[in-house]
Amino acid sequence: MKKVKLTGQIKKFLKYPLLFLLLLVAINIEIYMISTTAGLLMTAGIAAYALILFILSYRLQTHILEELISFATQYGQVQKQMIRELAVPYALTDEAGHLLWFNEEFERMTGRDSATYHKSIASLFNGLTADRFPARNEQLDYEILFNSRYYELQIRNIVLDDLVDSSGLIERNRGESQYIYAITLFDETDLKKYIRRYEDEMLVCGVMVLDNYDEALQSVEDVRRSLLTALIDRKITNYFQNADGIVCKYEKDKYQIVMRKRTLDELKESRFQILEDVKTVNIGNDMAVTMSIGIGVNQGSYNKNLENARLALDLALGRGGDQVVIRDAESITYYGGKSQAVEKSTRVKARIKAHALEEFIGGRQKVVVMGHKLLDIDAFGASIGIYRAARSLNKPAYIVVDVPNTSTQPFIDEFNESQEYDPGMFLNIHEAKEMVDNDTLLVVVDTSKPDYTECQDLLSQTSAIVVLDHHRQSNDCITGAGLSYIEPYASSTCEMVAEILQYFSDGVKLKPMEASAMYAGIMVDTDNFMNKTGVRTFEAAAFLRRAGADITRVRKLFRENINSFRAKGEALERAELYRDHFIISVCPSKNIESPTIVGSEAANQLLNIRGVRASFVLTEYRGQVYISARSIDEVNVQIIMEKLGGGGHLNMAGAQLDTSIDEARNRLKQVIDDMIQGEEI
């Protein structure tokens, strides 16, 4: 105890009496100058004060040290007891994650005894291995589920270097640090419960429209039309009222929906059975009624939810209808979409789009038309139609074709050899980048995905963009288009362009070569008028025939070489029947100029096998795997391809994967398995 000395504030406090003693000595000197007798008396008093101060200082220092040590010991015990009885589970582990010590609350939570249980923390919380522990002076947080309760688990790294060095009991290697980990758990079960209750009570806005209301009514006798409408209204009202939702009809075929998010979750689980229920309403109508629903949720306000519900509805209609699109703050989800898009009997929309396109072309100095990568004959034919529309208004027009394939090369050669056309009408990507500026109208045909276009950079070089497409829309569509005409019911983009040309500037006069190219586009996308054809398809074909389309020339241009013919046969020979109703094959690409086209033709032929609901042909080309998916009417191959990053139509779709053939095949099979298990197909 004699070697222990006081320091800090206590030592400073004990110096104050000594300073007071010095002050008295100074005063005593002044008193001697006034009176010697008074000075002697004060000196005697100061001496007595100094003696008493010395005795007290010696004895008090020892007593203070004893009291401080006693307090520190008791304080450490109290602190340890407080941690031991802390209401929050707390534990310490070594570097390997083995438990060293934990408090009573941790014992109560886990049912383990701190005196005997020193196993790894991973034995209590699965997956919490040492590789998930934080680095030096860091802290990591995890959410865990333990005994049906949710916890936030905090792990903090504690460095023991100073403690080890000062202990004198343990020697550590230079450059190596000693760690322990402090683990604290906070019970968030009730918090999560209230958050979930709050989220469940949030209001969700939705907008619903009957896709083919007018067409369905026309197929019913006049006296029964009101009954059909009443039955549809009752079916819709009962469905949402039973789910604790509110539905309000504000037009003859449009409804607004308000419900809780909890109700939306219930409807998701049933995969929106109303889509199928409304089709069962039949009082003699030849056409089943379908509907599209757009829902906005988690957008921060009711107005934004409603705005996003309308955007979701536009997307649902752009994908062909008969589906629900939910637009969340972070994602877009699709339900349904199993029915073929219904062909509209009216051409009002085509006429309106034709006039709008005429104004767009008239307001720019030149027109550049661009299709998708690996340009097919449908995109090429549609580009030729837009080219003729621009030339009829005396505007310079160009078509972007980077690398022609076997299907488009014969047509391109004919145009290049003809004296009636400008030799520079076809541009490669580099020429197109130099050509396009803000005075250029860029028309994108046969795709609405920016990354699928022949040259995505062109989209940012002009503010005037027009999109014409017959594929179902997806999330990543071209934004900022001044005019967007997307009709999933159309057989091809050439069909859409043929309709537009009939209303364009009092009718555009197509030349025979141009009409033949557009006619070829319709033939390819309909598989010789066998798939996805409607009345308007044949009307468009008749218009092109009247314009001089030569069917014999088209057939000759479509003839393939011997290597492509053999490759198609090899793809048919490799076909593998999967899950009894799906057929998967691989098309060779060696020595084939356009293997993706051969693969799509093989996929069409595989549908002729009895019992096959969908066919998939994989082709490796330019470092990517292209999947051509086809079906007749039983399976929506579009939603299958969307899960692989692609898209398309209900019975004609595709995807591109940056992987090997074997991995692409396995991923395709896994998607089919998951969708069958989830009853999506």
Task: Explain how this protein is built.
The chain is an alpha/beta fold. The protein has 22 helices and 23 strands. The strands form 4 sheets. A 6-stranded mixed β-sheet has the order 7-8-6-9-10-11. Helix 15 (493-502) packs across helix 17. The mean pLDDT is 85.
List keywords for this structure.
681 residues, alpha/beta, 6-stranded mixed β-sheet, 6-stranded parallel β-sheet, 22 helices, 43% helix, 20% strand
Shape: elongated
Please count the helical segments.
22
The assembly state of the depicted protein chains is single chain
How many strands, what sense, and barrel or not for the largest sheet? 6 strands, mixed
Low-confidence sequence ranges: none
Beta-strand content estimate: 15-25%
- Distance between the first and last residues' Cα: 86 Å
Counted beta strands: 23
- Give average pLDDT, whole number: 85
Radius of gyration: 41 Å
What spatial order of strands do you see in the largest sheet?
7-8-6-9-10-11
Helical content stands at: 40-55%
- Return the structural class: alpha/beta
Summarize the structure.
With 681 residues, the chain is an alpha/beta fold.
Give the secondary structure arrangement, pairings included.
Elements: H1 8-34, H2 36-84, E1 90-93, E2 99-102, H3 104-110, E3 139-146, E4 149-159, H4 161-167, E5 179-187, H5 189-200, E6 203-210, H6 213-218, H7 225-242, E7 246-251, E8 254-260, H8 261-269, H9 274-277, E9 291-296, H10 302-318, E10 323-327, E11 332-336, H11 348-362, E12 366-370, H12 377-392, E13 397-400, H13 409-417, E14 426-427, H14 429-435, E15 440-445, E16 464-469, E17 483-486, H15 493-502, H16 512-525, H17 535-546, H18 551-557, H19 562-573, E18 576-578, E19 582-587, H20 595-606, E20 614-621, E21 624-631, H21 637-642, E22 647-648, E23 652-657, H22 661-677
Parallel strand pairs: 9-10, 12-13, 12-15, 13-14, 15-16, 16-17, 19-20
Antiparallel strand pairs: 1-2, 1-5, 3-4, 4-5, 6-8, 6-9, 7-8, 10-11, 18-19, 20-21, 21-23, 22-23
Helix pairs in contact: 1-2, 11-15, 12-15, 12-16, 15-16, 15-17, 16-17, 16-18, 19-20
